[in-house]
Design brief:
By secondary structure, this protein is α/β, with parallel strands linked by helices. It has one domain: TIM Barrel, CATH 3.20.20. It is about 45% helix and about 15% strand. The chain is globular and about 50 Å long.
Length: about 300
Amino acid sequence: MIMSGISENTAVGAGLLAGARRSKVEVSFEFFPPTTDKMAQMHWEALSRLAPLGPRFVSVTYGAGGSKRERTHELVCRIRNETTLEPAAHLTCVGADRGEIGEIADRYWEGGIRHLVALRGDPPAGQECFTSTPNGFAGSVELIEFLRKRHDFEISVGCYPEIHPEARSSLADIDYLKRKMDAGATRAITQFFFDPETYLRFVDRALAHNITIPIVPGILPVTNFAKAREFSRRCGTQVPAWLAHLFEDLDEDPATRNLVAAMVATEQCLRLQRAGVGQFHFYTLNRSDLVYSVCHTLGLRPQKSAVSN
């Protein structure tokens, strides 16, 4: 078959190259602490695969309660001690009072951790609404203020392009993000979304409310559509009909599902990049394959490995 006229200047090729060359890209990756030895091995393999892309930082999520909290601390410290990557530890208001949070923050500081992701946190299992711990924090603004006074942390926070499920209104939600910035937050990372215009409109609204910290889009490559739909239901993210259609009948076809997932996430990021976005935060789910392919298309190339074998 003769492929006449196919060159770097085809519509698809030109579009991909234009997106990759438009602006320099900076990325960060989010992981969750593994709960078994097998999952720990898979996590470290994913981290090792993504590390040469030179992320600005890698964050580790946090669970309320002793065991999950300790796993977060152990993983963050391992990243600090065994790699050249910059780790960021999630810290929430759930299940701990001010004294406990202060001790956790002190341990991180003493361990060389300088970046925290400060969140209110989801209600514990079995509870529908967040309830502050006695002598604890009512929300993330109080937590940020406390951490700022405790140590000179860099503090990232969360935000919701499609409004927090518990917010009274979109205006109240934006106002709360402004309060987080005023309390000392240095970066906002969005909940995942699927429509790039949703993020762009949110940034415009934030700027109109004098929110000047970077608002980094959180990107979730869809490795499992059923789980992604459940995540979306819990956090208020809209799942477009076209996305559901793309993943239809692919439950038993992982190879095709991965190709579709990579295409969707890549196109989402390229559209944002063409709109001038240069920073992306990837929710990896402790997997590297899809995230690596998207980063490659955005123009990132491996540097010297930051993880020792």
